[in-house]
Amino acid sequence: MSEAPASAPRPSSGPPSGPRGAGGPRTGRGGPRFRRPHRKVCRFCADKVAYIDYKDGPRLRSFISERGKILPSRMTGTCAWHQRELTHAIKRARNIAILPFANE
Ligand SMILES: [Zn+2]
Q1: Could you tell me if residue 71 is inside a domain?
Q2: Count of the separate structural domains present in the chain
Q3: Is the distance from CB of 68 to CB of 104 less than 8 angstroms?
Q4: Of 31, 38, 76, 86, which one's alpha carbon is 20 to 30 angstroms from that of 66?
Q5: What CATH number should be reported for the domain holding residue 77?
Q6: pLDDT of 38-75, one tens digit each?
Q7: Which domain holds residue 83?
């Protein structure tokens, strides 16, 4: 039993492969993430819509999922202001049975 195991760590001072102290620059992860080349523009802003008509079912329908949920502005690109108006419009439209409530 004089042979050293093959997986013995290097006794001499090897390359500094250990993790650095906290606060160091993060390396390794975080490669180039896939991004959409073109940033979406708020559809209402593009159309210069000042007031979202809650009676416009077909238009509102494109901003809700198939399950009837309101899509987040991240998906639709709607700006914060119009997203808020849109939420109100959709909720109103639900109350008058133009749009369905979220069904599971
Ligand atoms: Zn907008």
Answers
A1: yes
A2: 1
A3: no
A4: 38
A5: 4.10.640.10
A6: 778 999 999 999 999 999 999 999 999 999 999 999 99
A7: 43-95
Residue listed under structure tokens 């509102």: 60
Dist. CA 97 → ligand 1 center (Å): 25
pLDDT tens digits for range 76-100: 999 999 999 999 999 999 999 999 9
**Distance between Cα 81 and ligand 1 center (Å):** 6
* Structural domain contains residue 55: yes
Q: How far apart are the first and last CA of the chain?
A: 67
Q: 86 in a domain, yes or no?
A: yes
The answer to pTM > 0.85 is: no
